[in-house]
Amino acid sequence: MRRKMIALTGFIGSGKSTIASILRQWGYKTVDCDEIARQIADDPEVVARAARLLGEQYVIDGKLDRAAVRERVFACPELLNRYQALFFEGVRARIAELATQEGNVLFVEIPVIDAFPFDWDEVWCVQSEKNTLVDRVTARDGVTAASVTATLANQKPCSAPTRIICNNGSLAELERTLGELLVCAGLR
């Protein structure tokens, strides 16, 4: 039997990872598509395809230079789409595999919800004000505000969320909102 699959999506810095962490603390199963993509990115075949797409200078000691790659691909939407396509099939296949495992519900942290077709039971979109997103990412990643703004410019908003989580306040407010949402969704 297939478990219920709920996508957690939103722009960079919106709080998807924070929500996933809270859910794990509360005993829910979660998976991070970025982590799956990082595992796939270590595959030598994927590294070779990325090098052909971007250039050998983006590979250091057989691994992708993620910071340099991010800066390059987020500067060009077409290049970003081609780069992301290198990972989508592997990520989709892993999610499909996880859907068949035991458990009632799995929350899937996925920044690019429209990346590939998947039969989500629900899509929960995490939203924050733009200045909050920029502040969070610059503090977390040590990048410039211009870099974050360029990344945001290339991210598409979720077109059809089932539920929206506003995350502009404190951690306690986010936990309260998430708890209420779980009750409303019949998961608590």
Description:
The chain is α/β, with parallel strands linked by helices and 188 residues long. The chain has a single domain (4-97, 105-184), classed as P-loop containing nucleotide triphosphate hydrolases (Rossmann fold), CATH 3.40.50.300. Helices cover 51% and strands 16% of the residues. It has eight helices and seven strands, in the order βαβααββααββααβα. The protein has helices at 16-25, 33-41, 44-54, 66-73, 77-99, 130-141, 145-153, 171-184; strands spanning 4-10, 29-32, 59-60, 63-64, 105-109, 122-127, 163-166. The strands form two sheets. Strands 2-5-1-6-7 form a five-stranded parallel β-sheet, sandwiched between helices. Strands 3-4 form a two-stranded antiparallel sheet. A hairpin with a 2-residue loop joins strand 3 (59-60) and strand 4 (63-64). Helix 2 packs across helix 5 and helix 3 (44-54) packs antiparallel against helix 5 (77-99). The longest helix has 23 residues, at 77-99. The chain is globular and about 50 Å long. The two termini are 21 Å apart.
The percent range for helix content is 40-55%
Strand order of the largest sheet: 2-5-1-6-7
- The SS-based structural class is alpha/beta
| Total count of helical runs of at least 4 residues | 8
Total count of domains:
1
**How many E strands?**
7
Shape: globular
CATH top level? Alpha Beta
Straight-line distance between termini: 21 Å
Uncertain segments:
none
Strand content: 15-25%
